[in-house]
Each structure stands twice: as structure tokens, then as C-alpha cells.
Amino acid sequence: MSRGYNFSAGPAALPEDVLRQAQAELLEWGSARASVMEISHRGKDFIALAEQAEQDLRDLLAVPANYKVLFLQGGATQHFAQIPMNFARRDQAVDYVLTGDWSEKAAKEAKPLARVRIAASAADSNYARIPARAAWDLDPTAAYVHVTPNETIRGVEFHEVPDTGAVPLFGDVSSTILSRPLDVSKYALLYAGAQKNIGPSGLVVMIVRDDLLERCPRDLPKIFNYAEHAAQGSMLNTPNTWGWYLAGLVFKWVKAQGGVVAMAEHNRAKAQLLYGYIDGSGYYRNPVEKSARSWMNVPFTLPREDLDAKFLEESEAAGLLALKGHRAVGGMRASIYNAMPLEGVQALVDFMKDFAARNG
Ligand SMILES: *Cc1c(COP(=O)(O)O)cnc(C)c1O
């Protein structure tokens, strides 16, 4: 058996070069005479690694100097709750824009902690579009506006950053970070679970504007307080050192590919190839409005549900892994994050053509 093309939505494929490097230095990292997983996070070697990873991410996204970069734990989901804990009072409005399952979950987790308002929702379209900015009902006194720039499950993506005026914009960029240029300055806070475009699950990267950290309530337990994490260089307690190390390797890999501008060209080409084939096939179908289609997650259905099991079995046998759609949507989903090469998408399209011809 050999490695397949992995279309998993997350934990997702990592660049093969990164896995090989991690394998080569798994037992002895640098001059440590031990694995990177086995050394103190407070030693100078690990501190240097941590600082380099942060610098590489800052370079890749041109993160302005007045933003902190944090390496946290708990997955994006923990931060659905921790964000309102830090940035809103219980009686204060927080605006959520619902564009799919992840934004719904983020709003739900915030409910016990702040006065959640749904500023806009595309639920009526079964989350097949992004609600037009002009129709959003924003509260000018809200603590923040929360958006999910890429909805991983239904494959819906914002292709522009919405203007929210003086109200700070927060974005869950778990499944789009590093896939294309991102204007950090338009957001007050960005966060991402690592397991799509950054590294292993469990690690969360957060980019947060300094002035926001002044709002963190002093009576929060330290471990939940972002200002404390920032003050301690994300080492308030033992960080996910293995995740931080792998994230650092991935940042170097993205740089070596030419950075986020090159990544965007690569991802646009993959998305065009796959959507172009689906739309022209007369067989497969993607329900998302063209202007809102994700470059990272491409759900599609077959003409009859009873073909799904056969498609999955045969695609798996052909080395095309994890194409099963999310249980909320059914059908298939191809996640084509940064680490998926164009050849992988071409192999998928070739398989889909052949399958359609045999199962018309
Ligand atoms: C995967 C994902 C999450 C959840 O991440 P966890 O690490 O499982 O908590 C949240 N938001 C988006 C957009 C995601 O893609």
C-alpha cells in the first residue's frame, strides 16, 4: 500500500515534505539528542523554534506590529466560548453572521456568555450563499461581529472581507488561513484550528489586535484569559510543543512554495479544475452559488444516493481517500487544502469521469 491523495476535511493532509522532515528528525531534533517532543518548552532551543514559527507566520500574512500571535490549545471550538468570555460582557450584544454549521456552533457556544444577535443568516438557502452585506442587521454597540470566512462543511466562502465599521470584526479562519492572502488589518481577531492548513489538531493559532487584549476581564481564570497568554508568550502552561513544531515546518513550506500569493494561484487552479468539471458533467452537482464557492472544500452529489457507497468504495481503492461528505449534507466532499497537489485533483476528476461513464 502507498499513501493516497487525502481529501479529508480535517484532520487533513499535511505536505509530504513536512512529514518526511518530521520523520527524519523524530528521534533527535537538532543538537538536542532527544525528540522535539521530549524537551523543555522553556529551553532556549524550543524558544527559538517558537519565535521562528511566529516570525514566519507574521511574514506570510504581513501581520501588523500591533497584533499578537498566540499559539493556544483546545481546538477552534474551545475558542467559540472563550472569545465571548474575554471580549463581551454578559449583557452586551455580539453579532454573528450565520453561513453554515461552524458559525451556528460559534453562536451557540457564545449564548450563555453574551447577548447573541444573529445579524444575518443564509439558513433559508440551506447555506448555499453568503448573505449580502447590505442586508446585515448590525448593532453599532456590539462587542464584535463574528464571521466564518470559510464554512468547511458546506463549502461556502467569503471572497471579500465585510466592512463592519467601528465594530471589531472577528473571523474563524480555520479552513482558509494561508490558502490565499488575508488582510489581517481588516480584522480585530482571527483564529484557526490547525488541522486544516497548519498542522495537527489541538493547536489553535490566534492573531489579535493589542487594544482588544485590554478588554479581557481581570477576574477570569488565568488559563482562559488571552491577555495572560499573550503576556506569557503563549507559555502560561505547557503548550502543544509537537503541534507548534509542525506548524513551524508548514510555515517554512508555504514560504518555500512562494507564500500565500503562490498558494492562492495553486488553490484557484485546483478549485477551477474541480468545479469546472462538476458543472460541465451533467452528472455531479454542487449546490453553492458560484460567487460563494469555497476554494478549500468542494461538496458534490451524485445523481442518485444509492451510488454513494459504490463511489466511496471505488475511489478509496483508487487511492482517493476520505471523500465521504459530512453527515449533515450527505454526498461527497473533496477538501483540497494547501497540501493537496494539482495532480491529486486531476486524479479525482479522472476517476469521477470514469465513474460517471460507467454508472450513467
Ligand atoms: C474544523 C473547524 C472547527 C473546529 O475545530 P476543532 O479543532 O475541532 O475545535 C471550527 N471552525 C471551522 C471553520 C472549522 O473548519
From TrEMBL:
<dbReference type="InterPro" id="IPR015422">
    <property type="entry name" value="PyrdxlP-dep_Trfase_small"/>
</dbReference>
<protein>
    <recommendedName>
        <fullName>Phosphoserine aminotransferase</fullName>
        <ecNumber>2.6.1.52</ecNumber>
    </recommendedName>
</protein>
<dbReference type="GO" id="GO:0004648">
    <property type="term" value="F:O-phospho-L-serine:2-oxoglutarate aminotransferase activity"/>
</dbReference>
<feature type="domain" description="Aminotransferase class V">
    <location>
        <begin position="5"/>
        <end position="348"/>
    </location>
</feature>
<feature type="binding site">
    <location>
        <position position="102"/>
    </location>
    <ligand>
        <name>pyridoxal 5'-phosphate</name>
    </ligand>
</feature>
<dbReference type="InterPro" id="IPR022278">
    <property type="entry name" value="Pser_aminoTfrase"/>
</dbReference>
<feature type="binding site">
    <location>
        <position position="195"/>
    </location>
    <ligand>
        <name>pyridoxal 5'-phosphate</name>
    </ligand>
</feature>
<feature type="binding site">
    <location>
        <begin position="76"/>
        <end position="77"/>
    </location>
    <ligand>
        <name>pyridoxal 5'-phosphate</name>
    </ligand>
</feature>
<keyword id="KW-0032">Aminotransferase</keyword>
<keyword id="KW-0663">Pyridoxal phosphate</keyword>
<dbReference type="InterPro" id="IPR000192">
    <property type="entry name" value="Aminotrans_V_dom"/>
</dbReference>
<comment type="pathway">
    <text>Cofactor biosynthesis; pyridoxine 5'-phosphate biosynthesis; pyridoxine 5'-phosphate from D-erythrose 4-phosphate: step 3/5.</text>
</comment>
<dbReference type="GO" id="GO:0005737">
    <property type="term" value="C:cytoplasm"/>
</dbReference>
<comment type="subunit">
    <text>Homodimer.</text>
</comment>
<dbReference type="Pfam" id="PF00266">
    <property type="entry name" value="Aminotran_5"/>
</dbReference>
<feature type="binding site">
    <location>
        <position position="42"/>
    </location>
    <ligand>
        <name>L-glutamate</name>
    </ligand>
</feature>
<keyword id="KW-0028">Amino-acid biosynthesis</keyword>
<dbReference type="GO" id="GO:0030170">
    <property type="term" value="F:pyridoxal phosphate binding"/>
</dbReference>
<feature type="modified residue" description="N6-(pyridoxal phosphate)lysine">
    <location>
        <position position="196"/>
    </location>
</feature>
<comment type="pathway">
    <text>Amino-acid biosynthesis; L-serine biosynthesis; L-serine from 3-phospho-D-glycerate: step 2/3.</text>
</comment>
<dbReference type="GO" id="GO:0006564">
    <property type="term" value="P:L-serine biosynthetic process"/>
</dbReference>
<keyword id="KW-0963">Cytoplasm</keyword>
<dbReference type="GO" id="GO:0008615">
    <property type="term" value="P:pyridoxine biosynthetic process"/>
</dbReference>
<dbReference type="InterPro" id="IPR015424">
    <property type="entry name" value="PyrdxlP-dep_Trfase"/>
</dbReference>
<keyword id="KW-0664">Pyridoxine biosynthesis</keyword>
<keyword id="KW-0808">Transferase</keyword>
<comment type="similarity">
    <text>Belongs to the class-V pyridoxal-phosphate-dependent aminotransferase family. SerC subfamily.</text>
</comment>
<dbReference type="InterPro" id="IPR015421">
    <property type="entry name" value="PyrdxlP-dep_Trfase_major"/>
</dbReference>
<keyword id="KW-0718">Serine biosynthesis</keyword>
<feature type="binding site">
    <location>
        <begin position="237"/>
        <end position="238"/>
    </location>
    <ligand>
        <name>pyridoxal 5'-phosphate</name>
    </ligand>
</feature>
<feature type="binding site">
    <location>
        <position position="152"/>
    </location>
    <ligand>
        <name>pyridoxal 5'-phosphate</name>
    </ligand>
</feature>
<feature type="binding site">
    <location>
        <position position="172"/>
    </location>
    <ligand>
        <name>pyridoxal 5'-phosphate</name>
    </ligand>
</feature>
<comment type="function">
    <text>Catalyzes the reversible conversion of 3-phosphohydroxypyruvate to phosphoserine and of 3-hydroxy-2-oxo-4-phosphonooxybutanoate to phosphohydroxythreonine.</text>
</comment>
